[in-house]
Amino acid sequence: MKIHNTTGGRIFDAANYVFLSLVGIITLLPFVYVIAGSFATEAEITRRAFFVWPEQFTLGSYEYIFSTPAFIRALVTTVLVTAVGTLVQLAFTVTMAYPLAKRTLRGRKVILSLVVFAMVFSGGMIPTFLLVKDLGLLNSYWALILPAAINPFSLIIIKNFFQELPQELEESAKMDGATEIGILCRILLPLSKPVLATFALFYAVGIWNDFMSPLLYLSDNSKWTLQMYLRQVTAASDLLGTGNVDPAYIPPEQGIKFAVIVVATLPILIFYPFLQKHFAKGMLIGSVKG
Amino acid sequence: MTAPVIATEAGERAQPPASAPRKRGRFSVHFAHYKWLYLLLLPGVVYFAIFRYGPMYGVSIAFKDYVPFLGVNDSPWVGFQHFQDFFSNPDFPRLLGNTLILAFLNLGIAFPLTIVLALLLNEVRLSILKRTVQTLVYIPHFLSWTIVASLSFLLFALDFGPLFLFLNSVMGTNIDFLSDPNWFRPLIVLQEIWKNTGWGTIIFLAALATVDQDQYEAAIIDGAGRFRRVWHITLPGIRSTIIVMLILAIGQMLNTGFEQIYLMTNALNRSAADVFDTYVYFVGITQGAYSYSTAVGLFKSLVGLVLIFGTNALAKRFNQSGLF
């Protein structure tokens, strides 16, 4: 390891450390600015080009958004849809993955290949929209949950996980007279808690962040989720709306946009330590198995 | 656990070949044995039938003139009419151009940057620094495109946005980056880099960890410097990972990301912003041309399939292990 200590090597290391630190800091700066801006006065936002600490603290922006019924409604809606959607996705995925993990089950191969085909090819936006419309789900929160109830990738990963659990556990439970459903609930689910927690996080983030489904399926603005609300508030006065910006959503002050962004980001940042740990693992499992 | 269930299980065990019925046994016997499993399977199968295969059947309207009150089944067939209309539409070359340019910018800039960042992180011996940088650069991956777009609106906001002021003062201009069509692509690529480069390093870092350490020691003894080691050992060591990721990226090339593009599109930058995904939305959902937009979407999916199988075959020809 002598070569590593050459002058050239040391210069490279130093430059690399400085560069990577800068990359990290630059990644973070937009958040710092938005958080600082959400506590700043309107005058400061327009006067100072960039700041990471407001000169004068104010909670005005937060007071405004938390006294806006449309915002509260969007926030509550999003929390509920995320919670119910996560449970539905978990339930659908686990109940389907368990039978598919049994190699002796007839019809299993056909179903699995149909699942894989659905991974490669999908009907696309318009046929899915028409289906949701024909089912009478437009402007229903179920339209945000049901069309995505099972992700084929996570179904296959969970199926593989069940398949790799030791068979002896199930067999001895069967000897004791347990049913298949009993085995699933009392033996497999407790054993797969960490995996299921990972997928629960995965689903929750996906639903919380979803913008396309509410855009397609919820035209009634009293039903909007947080992402739709955020879009309206931040796009409004910027000439940006694609034609359908409701003037009622144009915020009176810039600071309000900052505050809405912070509130929409906060849950993700709070869960981030768990996310980072589990997602990194999940991504690698997916790549190995997929 | 209910009484009848126990009875069934007990009855089953009394039969000669206890647990699994023989392969070619009667299906009714097999079904009776596995009825709880089939019951569990039911919701998932119904889901796939309705929400995955339903829309696939609905794709048939690409070859029909879809009339809402007639439904998918009874609308009249028109053959390839919608495809012909699309290919002869002046929108087509523009959409194809915009989609391909964005795709190649992402492949040519964001993809190599991910590998470079992974290589640089891999060279870090100070584990606290490595972990801190990783923690920071992974964060944006978890944010929605709505948040990324909103952050961009604020950072580039006319007259007060920090990046609006900074870039314009550096260049001595007064450009509204958010509505100028020339700045649409740089903005999209910048967002993509900020959001996904860090996260994309995970897979390459995992591959880098598997590179044989003995080779490095041998190379050091032979007098190879830092860069030569990266060039001759590290990069060849992760070549198959790079190829697999490249195949995946090319297969996804036409999926420019509906949410991102839609959120950054406005009346002034549409000449550069319109891509297949958003076109399907604008023509299909807002203008109600369901059949025509379905044909556009189908064209895009088929080209995507050809791309992924094509690059895979190409990778195999060059004696690399492909994806499948």
The biggest beta sheet of chain B is recorded as: none
Helix fraction of chain B?
over 70%
Q: Return the structural class of chain A.
A: mainly alpha
Which percent bin holds the helix content of chain A?
over 70%
Report on the biggest sheet of chain A. Answer: none
Averaged pLDDT of chain B = 86
Count the helices of chain A. How many? 14
Nearest-angstrom radius of gyration of chain B? 27 Å
**End-to-end distance of chain B:** 45 Å
How would you characterize the overall build of this protein?
The complex is a heterodimer of chains A (290) and B (324). By secondary structure, chain A is mainly α. In chain A, helix 4 crosses helix 8. The mean pLDDT of chain A is 86. Chain B is built from 17 helices and no strands. In chain B, helix 5 packs across helix 17 and helix 6 runs antiparallel to helix 13. In chain B, 37% of the residues are buried. The N terminus of chain B is likely disordered. At the A-B interface, helix 1, helix 4, helix 5, helix 6 and helix 10 of A face helix 1, helix 3, helix 6, helix 7 and helix 8 of B.
Keywords:
heterodimer; A: 290 residues; mainly alpha; 14 helices; globular; B: 324 residues; 17 helices; 72% helix; 0% strand; disordered N terminus
Could you give a quick summary of the protein structure above?
The complex is a heterodimer of chains A (290) and B (324). With 290 residues, chain A is mainly α.
Blueprint (SSEs and pairs):
The complex is a heterodimer of chains A (290) and B (324).
Chain A: H1 7-38, H2 42-47, H3 60-66, H4 69-100, H5 108-120, H6 125-134, H7 142-145, H8 152-164, H9 167-175, H10 180-191, H11 193-209, H12 212-217, H13 226-235, H14 254-289
Chain B: H1 3-14, H2 27-33, H3 35-58, H4 71-74, H5 81-88, H6 91-123, H7 127-138, H8 145-155, H9 162-171, H10 181-209, H11 213-221, H12 226-237, H13 239-251, H14 258-264, H15 270-273, H16 276-286, H17 290-317
Helix pairs in contact in B: 5-17, 6-10, 6-13, 7-10, 8-14, 13-17, 16-17
